[in-house]
Amino acid sequence: MATMRFEAEPYPLEFDPESTALLIIDMQRDFVEPGGFGEMLGNDVSLLRSTIEPCRRVLEAARRAGLTVLHTREGHRPDLTDAPPSKLRRGGLAVGIGDHGPMGRVLVRGEYGHDIVPELYPLPNEPVIDKPGKGSFYETDLDLILQNRGIRTLIVCGVTTEVCVHTTVRQANDRGYECVVLSDCVGSYFPEFQRVGLEMIKAQGGIFGWVSSSDEAVRVLRLIRPAGATSSAAE
Ligand code: TIU
């Protein structure tokens, strides 16, 4: 497949669809629905819900284009042995990680709140990376999976912009991946952090990566013919 081009800031990103994946970070009930970890931290989680529909459109386009799609979830083993005590203590929350909340035990694997929202639910062939930290590369096999698939470019969606998205993009950038973050597919509980978080990615010539939009991603992904597809008379 020939090299393609994302219109993005600070300048267009050239990419090869065969070495490009969609990475959707932590679109879990615990962050986007009331009664989860996000709310326990004192946040208005409704601010994140606007990301679901643009993420859904990009996910659908990526699936049609035959791209590798990966999902991550932040959370811990039920016995919390993979949760640093410092993380468990942080914030002195009345209902914190591992405690029982309205959506089950907060940020614990296997619980209702820990799972991905239905609109973006992974297909059986889409790897789900369960991560104990904010960064998707920390103590996970994400890098191994990306290397085995020959992935070099990541289209990044998810929450929250300045926490798990930023940490992941920084980790990816240091490992040599090129990340394009879709501005309306990532969300923050803090509008100012959303704005500055995106600025920080694309500043200084794209110090961490590129910023584009769901509309541009859908436009570009629709130009890709999945491997094995045959041409039609309409083309
Ligand atoms: N608190 C917050 O903004 N985010 C997180 O704790 N995790 C993710 O960003 N996924």
Count of strand segments: 10
Question: Oligomeric state of the chains?
Answer: single chain
Give the ligands present.
Answer: tricarbonodiimidic diamide
Beta content:
15-25%
Number of helices: 8
Describe the model.
The structure is a single chain. With 235 residues, this protein is α/β, with parallel strands linked by helices. It has helices at residues 29-32, 37-40, 52-65, 85-89, 142-148, 161-174, 191-206, 214-221; strands at 4-6, 13-15, 20-25, 68-74, 100-101, 104-105, 128-131, 153-159, 178-187, 210-212. The strands form 3 sheets. A 6-stranded parallel β-sheet has the order 7-4-3-8-9-10, sandwiched between helices. The protein has a two-stranded antiparallel sheet with strand order 1-2. It has a two-stranded antiparallel ribbon with strand order 5-6. Helix 3 (52-65) packs parallel to helix 8 (214-221) and helix 6 runs parallel beside helix 7 (191-206). It starts with a strand and ends in a 14-residue tail after the last helix. The model has no long low-confidence stretch (mean pLDDT 95). Tricarbonodiimidic diamide binds next to helix 6. Tricarbonodiimidic diamide (TIU) binds next to helix 6.
